[in-house]
Design the sequence.
């Protein structure tokens, strides 16, 4: 999918540059863009590496375990079928905490692990959908990349967006879970058994 | 004062809490940090190819004037709502790819300034959700779940709600 979008973007920009007579700018953009991309990675790399390190301390010190005990009642409500399957809940917790730190790339392995185990235990698609919604809404308590990017572009208050961002994420999560719950019957009847 | 500084207080206090947990449970803090940081480097390297491809693509798209043409045609429709036309490409790209939307966010922040209304709104939109299609394809692909049409439709509705919310709070 992204491959198609990407190639379409380049082809459209070529066609447009013929009309707007900006073929020179387009040529320069290749150099500029490659330069910029490395810059962004370098600017944000430090933050990502730092938070990955902190995350590892959190895992080793039992912080994620404590969080998972804290989250347990919520998770039990959201994933009623996984309530006594500790392995699944553990993976879900690591996934949620990594997402909260804005390390969505680091969250992917634990997410895949959780969802594989859920499938193996024949957890219903409704529960799996809820889990996917949690990943999509991605409540980032410390959005590593975003804050580093804003700071590097000269923002005076890179953190100011955080509370508003949490509200938007929560709206995503709550509507998402609500939609999954009300469409439950339909999901079960049409695809629940096949998956 | 608290709401202003909440964003800064949070990450710092998180680190303090994690460190105090580590000290209490006698974990080798620096060794754990180095382990995790090494994984972080792998993570950075793994996103590098996509970032290079997409930021170059977005820069080309912008410099060719294509973005202005799209904005020109969408402006009459979008100006009926309070939504700034600069954020349209971000909203389109966000469900498809995280790196792609980061590339667009970068260009919005450069041209409008990170502290402007548009810059703040773009940051909120890009921080409040994840790439829907990407998550469904990787997670369901890895676990061989096939019928994903319902979940995509439901999450796109939720995504629309979160964007409306972003405009309201920003």
Sequence:
């Amino acid at each position: 999918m992204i491959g198609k979008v990407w190639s379409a973007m380049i082809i459209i920009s070529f066609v447009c540059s013929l009309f707007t007579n900006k073929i020179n700018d387009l040529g320069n953009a290749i150099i500029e863009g490659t330069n910029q991309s490395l810059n962004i990675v370098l600017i944000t790399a430090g933050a990502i590496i730092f938070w990955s390190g902190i995350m590892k301390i959190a895992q080793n010190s039992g912080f994620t375990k404590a969080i998972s005990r804290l989250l347990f009642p919520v998770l039990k409500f959201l994933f009623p079928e996984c309530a006594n399957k500790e392995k699944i809940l553990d993976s879900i917790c690591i996934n949620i905490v990594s997402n909260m730190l804005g390390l969505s790339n680091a969250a992917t392995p634990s997410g895949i692990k959780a969802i594989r185990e859920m499938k193996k235990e024949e957890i219903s698609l409704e529960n799996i959908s809820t889990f996917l919604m949690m990943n999509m809404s991605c409540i980032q308590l410390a959005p590593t990349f975003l804050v580093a990017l804003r700071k590097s572009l000269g923002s005076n208050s890179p953190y100011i967006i955080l509370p508003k961002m949490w509200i938007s994420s929560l709206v995503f999560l709550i509507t998402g879970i609500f939609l999954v719950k009300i469409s439950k019957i339909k999901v079960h009847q049409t695809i629940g058994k096949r998956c | 004062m608290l709401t202003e500084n909440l964003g800064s207080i949070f990450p710092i206090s998180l680190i303090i809490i994690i460190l105090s947990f580590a000290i209490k449970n006698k974990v080798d803090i620096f060794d754990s940090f180095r382990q995790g940081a090494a994984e972080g480097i792998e993570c950075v390297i793994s996103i590098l190819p996509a970032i290079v491809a997409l930021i170059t693509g977005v820069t080309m798209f912008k410099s060719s004037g294509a973005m202005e043409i799209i904005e020109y045609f969408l402006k009459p429709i979008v100006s009926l709502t309070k939504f700034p036309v600069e954020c349209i490409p971000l909203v389109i790209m966000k469900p498809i790819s995280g790196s792609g939307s980061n590339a667009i966010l970068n260009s919005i922040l450069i041209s409008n300034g990170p502290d402007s209304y548009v810059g703040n709104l773009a940051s909120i939109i890009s921080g409040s959700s994840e790439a829907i299609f990407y998550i469904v394809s990787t997670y369901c692909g890895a676990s061989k779940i096939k019928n994903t049409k319902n979940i995509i439709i439901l999450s796109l509705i939720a995504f629309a709600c979160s964007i409306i919310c972003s405009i309201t709070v920003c």
Summary: The two ends of chain B are 18 Å apart (CA to CA).
